[in-house]
Amino acid sequence: MHNKLFEIRQRFDVRMFILYATVPLLLGLLLFQIMRLQWFDHEKYMLQSEQNRLNLVPLLPVRGEITDAHGKKLAINRIAYRVSLIPERIGHPDQILDVLAAMLAWSPAKRARIRKRILRARRPDRPVLVDDKLHWNQVAPLAARLHHLPGVDVTAGSFRQYPYGELTSHLIGYLSLSREHDIDAGYLPTEFIGRTGVERSFESILHGHPGYQREEVDSRGRRVAVLQRTAPIMGKQIQLALDVDVQQAASDAVGNRTGAVVVMDVHTGAIIAMLSKPGYNTNLFITGLESQQWQAWLDNPEKPLLNRATQAAYPPASTFKLVTAMAGLQHGARLARGHTFCPGYLQFADRRLRCWKRSGHGRMTLHSALVQSCDVYFYKLGDQLGMAAISDEAHEWGLGEKTRIDLPPEARGIIPTHRPYMMAAIKDSQTKRKKWFRGETMITAIGQGALTVTPLQMARLAAAIANGGDILKPQILANQPADILHHVDIRPQDLHKIQQAMRGVVTEPHGTARRVLSHAAWAAAGKTGTAQVVKMSQHDNKKISKTDLLRRNKDHAWFMGYAPYKKPQIAIAVFIEHGGHGGSAAGPVAAAVINAMARKQVAMAAH
Q1: Confidence tier at 545 by pLDDT (50, 70, 90)
Q2: Do 231 and 267 share a domain, yes or no?
Q3: Contact at 8 Å (CB) between 321 and 378?
């Protein structure tokens, strides 16, 4: 019995010893933790507490507006409300999205698109834009219930609007929400960024700088008070050289046809009009384009997203005869200062190269060949010159190279060369060849074959002929000094011959543009062109109707020139895709542009 009591006592003493040893140790650990929290890590946890209590909200800047040369608004900002949310504060996304969809009347497709945007957010602590361009009566019920929706916010802001829509779509461009690479570059997830046109090229000027608002929030992330506010800096307004009235006149003249019109100041390179048809509604991009609409544009055979003025290159047809003629004069070709006979064809080996006038033009000089656009004359002149001389002359006048306009992307076009020749459009190594044939030189001399140019390049060529040989960089902004990329060293008497022939195209009895341009408000000079196209069979594309197939088999129509003839102000290039004859299809558009410019000058003088 005694031994048993001793064992119990011993076990009790051990337990008490462990207790006496553990309590001070635990108290020491507790004291150490208190000291660590109060002294050593005080600043760290104070900062975390402040971060939980304070919220830094970015304030988006108002984008700079865009106007034309006379102050007409091309891109403006409208006051509206936007709804955003911070993903890490909203709890269950689907529940919140159900509430927002019901209150803001979202379609199922829109709800799905916004849900995907939230799930893809790289920074869950940053706001994600879920709706925009809202009126107060749309957001008022939501704003009254924000205390039940932590992480959701309604703010006043602005949205972009393009008053002229399709008329200026390719030049002005559009905006869209920032993407991952934009966020990496410093943009906020809720910001809109220029994607094409002027909006893209001058993004750094138009965008502005964001501000910030420091807010105090409660434990659920709801705003309690605004502690500090740094106002955003508005983007700068820019003024374009574009005259929207001239643009409208060109659009009206083109009508429902497909094509491009470029009007350029011959002395400064200022772009007075740049039209590409068909266009597209840039306003649809602001809050996220529906995939069906985007796909419809992509599937449209007329390619409304393509800027035909700068991105599309076509055979220049007879407008290129001006380059061939200048090459003949510069290189002293015998035919350039002599004459030949056109019977309506040129017999070349076992082939007949036809002139557009089957009955022939008769006796042709350089002047009459340009006025009447005789193919046979230029077949022979091209053969005398050789491809090297023609290619060098084309490059000298700015063809086959980008114009450097501040409107990427831009097509370069193709100027074939004989040394060694490879078709730029052919990528199959089995079909590449290095031999250049005389017949190809003849075809190139009249602007056909592998040769391609853009309407902008042809407008610049017309400007250079008018101003004495200055190759200008096209200027989009207003009041910019001339940027002469280089000067063509052409003899004044030779250039005068070209100018006289271009005037004869409009005034002489057999001139190819006389009927449509001889009565224009300003005396004009120019050159027409009719570019042959590869004929399509009805089996080539079963989706094309018979009527559309007939239209697509028609030739392309060109006109390029300048006005007034004696004191040039503007250069013009008109391209009508599958328009037919250059004089009858493209000439009237040039006349409409000239008349619009003349009316504008009279109106401005009256004021």
Answers
A1: low
A2: no
A3: yes
107 tagged catalytic:
no
Please identify which of the residues 201, 276, 318, 373 carries the catalytic annotation. Answer: 318
Q: Give yes or no: residues 319 and 227 share one domain.
A: no
Cα distances from 469 to residues 127, 331, 488, in angstroms, run 55, 17, 5
Which region holds residue 194: left if phi is over 0, alpha if psi is between -120 and 50, else beta? Answer: beta
Q: What is the DSSP letter of 276?
A: E
Neighbours of 140 (CB within 10 A): 12
Is there a single domain that holds both residue 120 and residue 255?
A: no
pTM of the model: 0.84
**Structural domains in the chain (count):** 2
C-alpha span between 399 and 376 (Å, rounded): 24
Q: Give dist(CA 326, CA 465) in Å, integer.
A: 10
Average pLDDT of the chain to the nearest whole number:
87
The per-residue pLDDT for range 405-433, each reduced to its tens digit, is: 999 999 999 999 855 444 443 444 444 55
State whether residue 410 is helix, strand or coil: coil
123: its two tokens? 């920074």
What is the Cα 407 distance to its own chain's centre?
A: 6
SS in 3 state form for 546-570?
HHHHHHHCCCEEEEEEEECCCCCCE
Instruction: Determine the Cα–Cα distance for residues 527 and 553; give it in Å rounded to an integer.
Output: 23
Q: What is the pLDDT of residue 451?
A: 95
Q: Which two tokens stand for residue 525?
A: 């000079």
233 and 268 housed in the same domain: no
Lowest pLDDT segment from 74-88, 423-437, 484-498: 423-437
Are 329 and 396 in contact, with CB atoms under 8 Å apart? Answer: no
pLDDT given at position 367: 97
Q: What is the CATH number of the domain that holds 483?
A: 3.40.710.10
pLDDT of residue 448: 94
Q: How far apart are CA 73 and CA 197, in angstroms?
A: 16
The model's confidence at residue 536, banded by pLDDT at 50, 70 and 90, is very low
Tokens representing 538 are: 């009805």
| Same structural domain, 219 and 330 | no
Tell me the residue ranges of DSSP E strands in 266-409: 271-277, 339-342, 345-348, 351-354, 362-365
Domain assignment of residue 517, given as a range? 244-278+310-606
The tokens for 401 are 């190279």
User: Using only C-alpha atoms, what is the Rg of the chain?
Assistant: 35
CA-CA distances (angstroms) from residue 433 to 280, 400, 430, 437?
41, 20, 8, 11
Shared domain for 153 and 263, answered yes or no, is no
- Tally of CB atoms within 10 A around 530: 25
For the stretch 276-297, pLDDT in tens is: 999 999 988 876 677 788 888 9
H or E element in which residue 53 lies? helix 42-53
Please tell me the predicted confidence (pLDDT) of residue 131.
85
In a domain, 442, yes or no: yes
Same domain, 429 and 566: yes
> If we measure between CA atoms, which residue out of 377, 355, 375, 358 comes closest to residue 366?
377
pLDDT exceeds cutoff 60 at 363? yes
**Per-residue model confidence as pLDDT tens digits over 134-185:** 888 888 888 888 888 888 888 888 889 999 989 999 999 999 888 888 888 8
Is residue 66 domain-shared with residue 87, that is, in the same domain? yes
